[in-house]
Amino acid sequence: METQNQISINKLSKHFPVGGGKxxxxxxxxxxxxxxxxxxxxxPSGSGKTTLLNIxxxxxxxxxxxxxxxxxxxxxLSTKASAKLRKxxxxxxxxxxxxxPVYTVYENVEFPLLLLNMxxxxxxxxxMEALDWVGLIPKIKSKPPQLSGGESQRVAIARxxxxxxxxxxxxxxTANLDAENSFHILETMLKLNKDLxxxxxxxxxxxxxxxxxxxxxxxxxxxxxxxxxxxx
Length: 232
Fold this sequence. Notes:
The chain is of the alpha/beta class. It has a single domain (5-229), classed as Rossmann fold (3-Layer(aba) Sandwich), CATH 3.40.50.300. The chain contains 7 helices and 10 strands. Strand 1 (5-18) and strand 2 form a beta hairpin. Helix 4 packs across helix 5 (149-161) and helix 5 runs parallel beside helix 6 (179-196). It is globular. The mean pLDDT is 93.
């Protein structure tokens, strides 16, 4: 049986207007990803990795070519359809956590589920399961200002995973963490990848993350310089 691609990127380019001209951030990228990958877009700042991650996450559109994500052509999605894709099937983890400071840990993790057609009991079960995955059940009543950086990032992971998305996109998720916290975060992600078959795609230049990747896609000047699978 042929493996279905979760992501297919075909001759994708992205231009941004600069002055009277344009800056090309991505140049004819071709990549495919299947279910259950633990992969990363790596490279220095300005290499195009965050731009590509944003297009895959339907936060932006290609200028030329196409990204097909979970069967949807990103360039053809309406604003409403893009929001639906993100709401129902994608999880996002950012380096700045993006937690709501006035809400508890429980409420922050529950927030994505309020947009879905779920009962209060279903939401509670899903939130408690997600917080158990990241070891934060004792912190459910705490608010983000009371948490450490590592705890905040674990809340962000629980929020991304609570709806059991098919694909999680993580932009520099360990940039603000020390080595020990990074280790715990990455071990948690690897376990979720294994147990739930959730695909993870990182944009990073953090060596701590790169050591965990099963596939490393090196970007340079908006192009794929190298695409390698790493045996563990």
